[in-house]
Design brief:
Layout (H helix, E strand, L loop, with lengths): L1 H9 L1 E6 L14 H17 L9 E10 L8 E11 L3 E10 L5 E13 L4 E2 L4 H8 L7
Antiparallel strand pairs: 1-3, 2-5, 3-4, 4-5, 5-6
């Protein structure tokens, strides 16, 4: 039980309400929308951790998603995000999608974000302050 509590403490949570336009002819959420949900939660995660001051300084280098159960119009998803790895100029973000009412895992994905200097078009090291903020949401640290 102790590990569950620790895991819960490091998770960043963001809710998404499924809109009708996100469903397909089969009546369930089209798989492309899970990437939009992940983006929405990822942006909120970065904002909540205050990793950017005003200018956006991250690019998405990689993303994947595993679809576990169907999701339908009107359902609410809770996307729980945490850090699985922190590198010199990048970090790995894991995201689990839970159906809010049942608590069931419906999808899970991961992405790699790179701290990027748009002017020089190159990756740039994460600051120590950024690493500390990211570490606070790392399962490896707990």
């Amino acid at each position: 039980m102790k590990n569950v509590l620790k895991r819960r403490e490091v998770m960043h949570e963001h809710e998404v309400k499924v809109r009708f336009c996100e469903t397909d002819l089969l009546g369930h959420v089209n798989n492309n929308n899970f990437f939009v949900y992940m983006e929405d939660a990822r942006i909120q995660f970065i904002r909540d951790l205050q990793l950017v001051d005003g200018d956006w300084s991250f690019i998405l280098a990689s993303i994947n998603c595993e679809f576990i159960q169907q999701v339908f119009f009107g359902q609410t998803l809770t996307i729980k995000s945490h850090i699985s790895k922190i590198g010199n100029s990048s970090f790995h973000l894991e995201q689990e999608h839970y159906e809010k009412e049942s608590g069931e895992l419906v999808a899970k994905g991961s992405s790699v974000l790179v701290h990027f200097d748009f002017k020089n078009q190159t990756s740039t090291p994460l600051s120590e302050a950024m690493k500390e903020k990211l570490q606070s949401h790392s399962l490896a640290a707990k």
